Amino acid sequence: MYQPIFEPQQKKSCIQIYISWTSYINLLISIAALAFGAYEGIRKKDLWSKSSFDWNKALVFLLVVGSILLFFTSIAGIIGGRKKNKCCIFFFQIFSIALSFSFLIVAFVFLGMTDSHVFDIKDTNCQSKNDIFKYSQEAYDQANELFCSEQCPCKVTDEDVKEYLEDTDYIIDNVNGKTKVQDCDDFKKYFSDSDVNDSVDWVESLEDTFDCTGMCTKPLNIYFFSNINRGIPDTETCRVKFQNFVSSYGKVAYVVGFVVGSYLLVNAILAFCLCCRDKRQGVSIYERFAFY
User: What is the mean pLDDT of the segment spanning 228-239?
Assistant: First the structure.
C-alpha cells in the first residue's frame, strides 16, 4: 500500500528571520514617526502658511517623507522575508540603501558643520570664506539702511520697541509703515545682489526660531526680517544662536545618522545575500538559505 512521504518542514534561515523581525520593528517605528509628524503638522497649522523656508516645516516634512519610505521598506521586508518574494526583497534592498545613504549624508553634513575648522568664525566682520554668514550680514546692513527710514518707515505697535526707538533717528509711521523689510517698496532695489537676496529666507527663519537679530554684528536690536512687533530680540546674534544650536544637537544628529544609516545598510546587504548566494543544482534561490 502506498505510504505518502512527509518531508520535514524547512526551517527559515537566520537571514530570513532577521529581515522579518527587523522589518516589524521598522514598521512600528515608521508608524510612530508618521503619527508624530502628522500631529505636529496639524497642531502647527501656521507652519504650512509661510512661503519662506522654515526650520520646523523642513523637519516635519523630512520626518513624514522618511516615515513613509521606512513604512514601505518594512512592508517589503516582511513580505519578502516571510513569503520569499523576490520582488519584495528587491524593493527592500532599494529602499534600505536609499534610506541608509540619506542618514549617512545627514551624519556627514552635521559632522562637517560641527567641525571646528569649518564652523568656527573668529572674525566679527564675517570676512571669512564662510559665505553664508558673510552674505547674511550684508543683508542686515542693507536692511538697516532701508527699514525705518524715509523710504520705508516702520509700523511699531509694541511698547518695548517704541521705547527702544524713541531716542533714535529711525522713522515710525503707524499708518503707512511696514512691519518687516521685505514689505518695503524699495526692497528689490536694495537687495539686487542675488547672493544677499538668497540669504533673506534663511535669516527670517533664524529670527523666527531663535528670537535673534544680526549675524556677525547688530546694526540695531530689532527684528528686520520678521515682524518688528514681536518685541526686543535676545542679546546674542543669530550667528551665535545658530552655532550654539548646531553644537548642541549636531553631535547627536551625526551619531544617530551613522548608527541608523549603518543599520539599514546591513539590512540591505543581508537581503542581497539572501538573493545572490552561489546556486546549487535543483535547489531554489530561497531553499539555498534554509539552514544558512
Answer: 91
Is pLDDT larger for residue 244 or for residue 227?
A: 227
17-32 pLDDT tens trace: 776 777 788 888 888 8
The whole model's pTM is what? 0.59
Whole-number Å distance between alpha carbons of 11 and 292: 10
Long-range CB contacts (within 8 A, 24+) of 234-239: 234/210, 236/212, 237/212, 237/213, 238/136, 238/203, 238/206, 238/207, 238/210, 238/212, 238/213, 238/214, 239/121, 239/126, 239/133, 239/136, 239/214, 239/215
pLDDT tens, position by position, 139-194: 999 999 999 999 999 999 999 998 888 877 888 888 889 999 999 999 999 998 88
